[in-house]
Amino acid sequence: MENKDKLRHVSHTNEWLEHIYETIIQKDEKEYAFVEMNIKQFRYINIEYGCAFGDHVLVSMQQLLETQLKGRGYVARRYADTFDFFVEHNHETHVLDSFLMDIIDAVFENGIEGLHKNLYTSFGIYLLHEECPPFAKLQTLAGIARKQLHHDRRTFSYELAQQDVVQEYLKTYRLSTKLTQARFLNQFQIYIQPKVELQTHKICGGELLMRWILEDGTMVPLNEFMSTFTKNGDLYMIDLQHFDKMCAFLQQRIKKHKAVVPISFNVTNLTVFDGDFLQDYLGTFRQYSLPKDLIEFEFTEDIHFEKKDQVQDIIDIFRSEGFTCTLDDFGNGFSSFDLLMNAAIDIIKLDRLFFQGMLSEQRKRVIHNIIDIAKIKGIKVLAEGVETKEYARFVEAEGCDYIQGFYYYRPMPLGEFEKLLDSDKILPYTMDDK
């Protein structure tokens, strides 16, 4: 309780700083910057040292800031481990190279009594010129800047609340809202890109892809929304909905004694590390009467490398259930050959980077050796992103099992893919085969 009282006594309030802004800063002819500062990973201190010691750290930081600002600014603790302050400046570089560096130097040289740990900080900076926005807007703009950090130094990170930074934030927020609206409007459609067996040159499977189709039929390019999509939670729900729809589609065709082929589903970082992933997908699949080898899960190399043991456990569970598991984008990361030698998988998909540019002798040897190692390991190989006859003939001659790319088929709406399933271009998988 004593620490709490001390914390309240030392820390100027948010209301006090707003009063300073309205009565002093706005009337002063000097140039000021408004700065939001946050102590990174402060909860670690509370957990490791206790909340009372955490309060001691905040009091010490407050005192350090007041010392650095003496005669040139004002500081208040807004909440928790976030501080706001005004500081005089004559240019943005003055804020960065003088004041912020003074703070960082003081923290690292003097430290906090009793804390044997470096404190790392982040800053959002708004430079006041002729315009003086309302205080709440100042806090919002500096907060947006701090969360859009593009500048990292060894001991701190910062961002200026310039127009482009604010616009980037607003653009991302508006896009996230549009993506949610599009989900409710069912604008994310199922597309399938066929996979071809090279021995027969017939379609032996398909990869489910998602496309955003607007009301007027316009397709929104993936690179315009995917980075936002992976952060707002909608992608997981759409992936699961599409998995459910595709299981229903396959079951309906089987009941009508029509040909089907295995369909693969992409597993993203967002999906695989969701706590409900296994339960959601296995639970959905069990609602249908489908052979398990009609379902294939594609794991990208980057998620496998990031949390190797956790992802391998999930792959092992899926394989033990009878599903096919594929390592996607093979060759597009640092861990490719480690995964090829040690991961328990069924198929590797050679990344499209292998099939871009001239088919040189060196490139031929690399592709040949990968296919050769995969065969020794009993792993099938699919060449992805093949667009030319030269590459198609080469991978076939090298003993590659499957091929996927524009040379054979582009991604297509589910309705068009169904027409292919009813044609003689299919290497059919039917219930009679089981």
From TrEMBL:
Coiled-coil residue windows: none
Pfam families listed in its UniProt record: EAL, GGDEF
InterPro entries reported for this sequence: Cyclic-di-GMP_PDE-like, EAL_dom, EAL_sf, GGDEF_dom, Nucleotide_cyclase, Rev_trsase/Diguanyl_cyclase
Residues covered by the EAL domain: 172-425
GO molecular-function terms, A-Z: cyclic-guanylate-specific phosphodiesterase activity
Domain of life assignment: Bacteria
Protein name per UniProt: EAL domain-containing protein (Putative c-di-GMP-specific phosphodiesterase class I)
Organism: Longicatena caecimuris
